[in-house]
Amino acid sequence: MSLLNRHPAPLALAAACLMMLQSGDAEAQRRRQQAPASTEVTVQNRAGATLQYLFVTPVGEVSWGEDRLGNDTVARNRSHTFTLEGDQCRHDLRAIYESGREETRFGLDLCARPEVALNGRTQTSNTDLQRQGPVALYIVRNRSGATLQVLKLVAPGGNESEDVLGATVLETGQTFTGRFRRGGGCTYDVVATFDGAGDRTLTGRNLCTNREVVFGPEAEGQPQARRDGGRERPAEPAGEPLAFVVQNRGAIPIQYLYVRPRGTSAWGEDRLGSDTIAARGSFQVSMPRRGCEYDVKVRFDNDREEVRNAVNLCESPEFVVTGPALATGRGDRKQRPTARAAQPSISQIVIVNEGERPIESLFISSSKVSSWGDDMLNPEVRIQPGARFTARVERDDQCNYDLRIVYQGGREERRMRQNLCQRQEIAFGGANAFRIDGGGPENGRRVVFTNNGRGDVREVYLTPVTDTHWGDDRLGSELMPRRFRLELRLPTEGGCRWDLKVVFEGGQSMEKRDQDLCATPEMAIGRAGRPGQVASTGTGFYINENGHILTNHHVIDGCATVAISRPGGQRVPLRLIGADEGADLAVLVQENTTSQPLRLRNGAGVNVRGGERVVLVGYPARSQLGGVNVTEGIVSGLRGALGDQSRFQYTAPTQPGNSGGPVLDASGLVVGVVVSQIDKISGERTAQNINFGIKLDLVRSFLAANSVTPTEGEAGASLPTSDILQNSDQSVVPLDCLE
C-alpha cells in the first residue's frame, strides 16, 4: 500500500491549507494593489461661523501639519474639498473658526467616510485625551489676558520643538490641542511667548498624567518670569498673589469652587465663574494672598460637596480632589452665558441591531414629553440584524431620552431615560441589549453586574472600601429587572477593592464587602433561590374548557415549575404551551381537567372604549392579602405608555401579583390581560392608578400562533361587581413560580 493510500486525509488537508494560504496571499496582494494612493475629502461647514484654518493629519503624526485651506476660508453652510495623499485612512482633524474656537475630531476613517460635517461645537474631550497609541494629546488653555503667539516644548535634554501653534495664535480664553510622541518621554518645560508680555515657562510638566496646561494671569505691576536656560526664575515681591492648580482626580465634574482664608466665615464668590472642572481635569486659581492656610470647598455635578480646612496652599502648588467615586451627575448644572445658548445641541447615537429581525421603526423622544414623535427610519431604510445606524437627535436643555424600536413583525423594545450626553451607542435585541449605563470615566476599568434573581433591583451602591459613605444610587430612577446588566467604569484611583450594596424592589438589601473587582470584573447580584422555593407569584385565568390558562410571560419567565396554588399548600403543576416575551403573554395547560373558562369579548364591541367600566379579579400581594381581590375603574386611554397601540390604560388599582389576570367589562367578559403599572415602565414610583392591559387583538394572535382556541361571547347586560366576582371566582387562579 502506498503512503498516499495509507494517509489520504492528512495529505488532502495539507493541500487544502496550502491552497488557502496561496489564495489568502493573492487576496492580500490584490487589496494592496487596490489601496488608493489618494483620497478626495470634503469638509462641510455646518457651524454658525466662518472656518479659517483646517488641519488634517494621520493619527501617528506628531505635528498637525499644514493648513489645508491655504488662503481660503469656508463660509457657513459651504464645503471645501482637498486631496489626501497616501494610503493612510485614519486621521485626526482640527478646525479653527473666525472666533478662534477650536473644533477637533480624532480617528476618522476618511477612506470609508470621506465627508466630514463640522458643527463648531465638538471639542477635545477627556476620552480623547486618554486615547491609546504612539501619539498622545494635551490641551493648552490661555487664561493670561494676553495673546499667546509661540508655544514650544523643551525636553529635559534641552531639545526644543518648533512652534506647535504653527500659523495660528491663541487669544485669551481659547484652547489648543497639542500632540506629542509617548516614546520621547512625558516631562517637558512648556514655553509660551505672549504678545507684549515676554516669555513664560511652566517647568517639569508631566503631560502623561496632567493633560491640561493652563496659563493664568500674572500679577499686575510684577516683573515677568524670564527664561534662563529653559527654566523659570520666579520673582517674589511683596504682595505676590496666591496661585495654585486644582486637580480633579475624580469621575465627577466640579461645578463650584470656594476658597476662604482660615478663620473667616464667608465663602465668597465661586472661583470657577462660568467654568467647570471636568473629570480628570484641572483649573488654575489666582487670587490675592492672605496668608497660607485656607479652607477649600468644592461642589460636584451631583450636588455633593467636599470641604477641607486649614490647607497650606503656599507649600503645594496643586490642590488634588478625589471626589465621590462613580456618582452619576444628577444635580443642576451651571448655565453658561453664550450667544448661541438658545440653539439646540445635536447628539449622534448609534443604534445596534443585535436581534434576529430587521428593525423597521425607530423613535427617540425626550423623557419629558409623552409622545414618541416621528419615525426616524423612512420606509426604504431598515436596520438589518448585525447592522448599525447613526441617528441625529436634536437636544434641548437636558440629556435623558427614551428610545423605542419596532422589529419586522411588530415586536417592540424600549430603552427609557438614556443619557445621550454620555452614551454613544445603544444595542437592541441581543445579550448586550439589556444594559443600563451606570456611569464612570470612559477610560476606567469596566465592571458588569447582572441581575440573575427573580425580582427587580431598585438601588445599587458602589464605593471604594476606604469610603465611609455609600454615595449615590447608581440606577437613579431606573429599575434593573431580571437579566438586565449594569455596566460601570471604575476610576483607577479607587483601587481594586470596593464595597457593594444592592436594594431589591421589595425593600430587602444585600451587602458584599471588600470585593476585588480587578479579579472579578463581572458579578451576579440577584437574590439566589432554593429549589422548590416560591420565587414570585402572579395570576392566570382559564380561557377554555380544556384547562388552558392565560397569563403574562414575565410571570412564568425563568421558573423551574409553574403551579396553581390551592388552599392548604397544595400545588397543581402546569405545562407550558407557548410564550412570547415581546407580547408578554404565556399560555399553559392543566392536564386531564375540565375547567370553567372566562369568555373573551367578541362581536361589534370587541375593542375597549374610552370611559367604559372595567373590573379586575386577581391575587395581588398574596402573602399579605391571602385570597382573591377585586377592584374596578374605567378605561382611561386607548394606548399604552408612550403611544403603544398594543396596550390600553385603565384606572382600576393594580398591585404586584395582579399580573396575568383578566381585565373584565361590565358584563364579565375579558377585554384584556393585566400587564404592568406605570412604575414598571417609566421608573416613576409616585404615579397612581395608571395601569396597562394587553388588547384582545394581540391576545388572539398569540393564541392562534400556539393553536389554542379560546371561549368567546358577546357583551350582555351590565352586572354588579359582586356578581362579576362570583361568576369568575372559579376561573381566575393564583400562580406560583417555583425555583
Q: Could you please describe the fold and organization of this structure?
A:
- The protein has 739 residues and is mainly beta.
- The protein is 9% helix and 40% strand.
- The strands form 14 sheets. The protein has a 7-stranded antiparallel beta sheet with strand order 37-36-48-34-35-39-38. Strands 41-42-43-46-45-44 form a 6-stranded antiparallel β-barrel. Strands 27-30-28-33 form a 4-stranded mixed beta sheet, with no helix packed on it.
- β38 (575-580) and β39 form a beta hairpin.
- The radius of gyration is 33 Å and the shape is elongated.
- Residues 1-14, 23-35, 219-239, 325-343 and 679-687 have low confidence and may be disordered.
* Strand adjacency order, main sheet: 37-36-48-34-35-39-38
Categorize the overall geometry.
Answer: elongated
The rounded Rg comes to: 33 Å
Helix content range of the residues, please?
A: under 10%
Please report the distance between the alpha carbons of the first and last residues: 62 Å
Number of strands: 48
In round numbers, the mean pLDDT is: 79
Which secondary structure elements does this structure contain, and how are they paired or packed?
Layout: H1 3-6, H2 8-34, E1 38-45, E2 51-58, E3 79-85, E4 90-97, E5 102-109, E6 115-118, H3 126-129, E7 135-142, E8 148-154, E9 175-181, E10 187-194, E11 198-206, E12 212-215, E13 227-228, E14 231-232, E15 242-248, E16 254-261, E17 282-287, E18 293-300, E19 305-312, E20 318-321, E21 345-353, E22 359-366, E23 388-395, E24 400-407, E25 412-419, E26 425-428, E27 435-437, E28 445-450, E29 457-464, E30 485-490, E31 497-504, E32 509-516, E33 522-524, E34 534-542, E35 548-551, H4 553-556, E36 561-565, E37 571-573, E38 575-580, E39 585-589, E40 600-602, E41 613-618, H5 622-625, E42 629-637, E43 647-650, E44 662-664, E45 670-677, H6 678-682, E46 691-694, H7 696-705, E47 712-714, H8 721-728, E48 732-738
Parallel strand pairs: 1-6, 7-12, 15-20, 21-26, 27-30, 28-33, 40-47
Antiparallel strand pairs: 1-3, 2-4, 4-5, 7-9, 8-10, 10-11, 13-14, 15-17, 16-18, 18-19, 21-23, 22-24, 24-25, 28-30, 29-31, 31-32, 34-35, 34-48, 35-39, 36-37, 36-48, 38-39, 41-42, 41-44, 42-43, 43-46, 44-45, 45-46
